[in-house]
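Hey all, quick one. A colleague (J.T.) asked me to put the uridine-diphosphate-N-acetylglucosamine job into the tracker so the inputs and the structure tokens live in one place instead of scattered across chat threads. No bug as far as I know, just bookkeeping. Sequence used:
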Amino acid sequence: MDRIRIRGGRPLSGEIKVGGAKNAALPLMVAGMLTDDRLVLTNVPRLADVQTMTLLIQQHGVAVDNVTNDARSLSIGGPISNTEAPYDIVRKMRASFLVLGPLLARVGEARVSLPGGCGIGARPIDLHLKGLEQLGARIELEGGYIDARVDGRLKGAKIVFPFVSVGATENLLMAATLAEGRTVLANAAREPEIGDLAAGLVAMGARISGIGSDTLTVDGVDRLHGAEHAIIPDRIETGSYACAAAISGGSVFLRDARLDHLGATVRILREAGVDITEQPDGLMVTRLNGLHGVDVMTEPYPGFPTDMQAQLMALLSVADGASMVTETIFENRFMHVPELNRMGARINVHGASAIVRGVPGLSGAPVMATDLRASLSLILAGLAAQGETIVNRVYHLDRGYEAVEQKLAACGVDIERISG
Ligand code: UD1
């Protein structure tokens, strides 16, 4: 199994190109299943999760082809010949569950494995199912699979989510585009990736209003057509490399990064002492002076994202003073804490909050990546640590970060992948 070795202490200096957003690419790929024509996606990141999604869509009979040699443009679409999403794929990647709505909308039936739990929590799918039932689907659970059916077309309805869910908003939004009549999604998630999915669907002929707000109104159409759509830059990759510049005491230009998608991340990083300035084609991130502790709570967008919590915690572990980090989205998302503590951080977890007492420095150690964002948090700690850090289980990292070691090495970091 691959590992990453970092020898810490070198400030980042240079430029990193931010890739397409993983969490926009995955639902947009699924949106390609809504048409017999072709949805061409550009700025697709090269990630293990994108490969998994490709396999899933292909096994539904829908074509997924590389349009260019660099695999950054995909063409997706065609008739659906198989309505089952098997356990072996869904268990690997929870976003697989997004095929449920589109399968129902297009062919009136779907059999999708339940995703099960994952490292960061139980992650139920009740909101997806309840919403689809409100659109007229009959849903049964059998042998670990969701069996869903609808006679004729799905029918528009008003769906009020009891709390904000990115995945449920996406599943229902896609299903509603082909439903009969009007669907209103209230208390919908407002993440930039939802806006990007909606923009892609509109390019395919969907009728959606309220994009960017917490109420999406969808007037169903009979069919969607082909389109071309460029995926937005990844705001979590942006925030992660901003933390890399900051923790290493360096400076980096993040090409293509968008300030307007960062929400609370930019405010929190600035409060912690990180300088972020907008330029025409990206963001300049520099650590000017010392870092300060900040209190932060994860929230749905535009609040501080749970997907940045582990990376920020690495940064705060070497900031002046104490910080309180409260996780409100997932119940078990502090698995990076014991690993950071092995490197000399002083972090205590009390329920949903972690108290981080800043230390003057960290020391390199062998550590274990436990999930995608935790992996990056450990790499960040390795950048600041004295000596050598080995991050094990980097397959988590490869799910969602493209070429981390190349991107950081190009900015002067002493980092390499050890294969096998
Ligand atoms: C998406 C992102 C993930 C991010 C998360 C929160 C993708 C592919 N993944 O995940 O990176 O961390 O948003 O920003 O875009 N919940 C329920 N019932 C449901 C659905 C969700 O109880 O039916 C709960 C979840 O367990 C969690 C909370 O709602 O506690 C938010 O989850 P949700 O926004 O749905 O996350 P995902 O779409 O799975």
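Adding what we noticed when we looked at it: The pocket of uridine-diphosphate-N-acetylglucosamine is lined by residues 23, 26, 94-95, 121, 123-128, 165-168, 193, 305-307, 329-330 (CB under 6 Å). The chain has a mean pLDDT of 96.
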